[in-house]
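General statements about sequence and structure are easier to judge against a single worked case. For one protein, we set the task of working out the structure tokens from the amino acid sequence alone. The sequence in question and its structure tokens are set out directly beneath this paragraph.
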Amino acid sequence: MFEHKDSSGVSQPSEDHTDSLAYYNGREALDAAQFADAANNFTLLIERHPRDPQYRWMRAKAYYGLGAWDLCRQDCDLAAELGLTLPEVRQLAEMAITEAHTSGNRGAGKPDFMALLALRHNYRLRSLFINADERLAEGDYNGVLELVTLAERLLDNGDASGDLAFNLGLMRVRACIGSGKQGEALEVIDFYIKHAQATGRDDYVRQFKVQRSLLY
């Protein structure tokens, strides 16, 4: 499965589309201190490769950034149990224990619980999106539409104008076009163009107009 390791000693996926996308998105999010996004991506990888300690280690760092001390320590411990011998793993676990002890009188368990709830929600959304993207590449347009519908139901009201919502819309349009549902595709395009204009997302106005031009 894995061909090489990067300079930090972390395995990099070589073939699988989902693994590659989740890995590189996770590393990029971690480098940008977008810890929730990083944890979402590494959670997906852990689901697919539960015995790989590298992903536990990467997610532990994301949890530390979120202030989820107990979750961080648990992933560090599991990474060590699975054979990861980097001294940084034990150091991070000890730092998480110290942070948890320091904040113990201020309800240290609550941040972990809330972080976990948010991560589970975001993980389900990201997982559905990635699976839909794979189905689109395979030409399974009906499968794409089913997954996009599920993902749209999980979106919060505050996410309706976010990148994920618009990208789900673009994916729905492409699936409709691929399955010969041009009329439905035009309805979706018109809806998202108006929504993008109303929310000041000119970048998505342009993208949906490009999709509309493909139908004429």
